[in-house]
Design goal:
This protein is mainly alpha-helical. It has one domain. Helices cover 49% and strands 7% of the residues.
């Protein structure tokens, strides 16, 4: 396999936030995603994180919170940027190429996030629930 074939294969891989992994590890997706909500959405949401549905949080973030100019900003760590990109897109699976393009739009100084680098980052995650998406056959 040539280097070009490897890059093409990697660019075609897609990832998403696997909400099931939070249940498996007895962790709360709502607790992790709550800080991504704007203050208006936090006020509208119920006060108990146990009662907040993941789908409702994701929809609020996609439709409202992600529109704020500072939703993704340079003060955030890279993994948080990635997490917020997925949330801003409704947690739709993104290919590594699409994710790289989305992230590049937020960098002041363009940084080359190759598909190989993104794959290593996403595969090493143990906090945000990033998983490789496979199409149902």
């Amino acid at each position: 396999m040539t280097e070009s074939d490897t890059v093409n294969k990697l660019e075609g891989l897609s990832y998403f936030i696997d909400l099931y992994c939070f249940q498996e590890s007895d962790r709360s997706f709502a607790a992790i995603a709550w800080h991504c909500l704007c203050s208006a959405c936090q006020e509208r949401a119920v006060s108990s994180l146990k009662d907040v549905e993941a789908a409702s949080l994701i929809a609020s973030i996609k439709d409202c919170c992600s529109k704020a100019p500072d939703f993704i900003n340079s003060k955030l760590p890279l993994f948080e940027w990635i997490f917020r990109v997925f949330l801003s897109r409704g947690n739709e699976p993104l290919s590594l190429a699409e994710l790289a393009s989305q992230l590049a739009a937020y960098f002041d100084n363009p940084v080359s996030l190759t598909p190989q680098t993104l794959k290593r980052l996403l595969d090493s995650d143990r906090y945000y629930g990033f998983k490789q998406w496979t199409r149902a056959k």
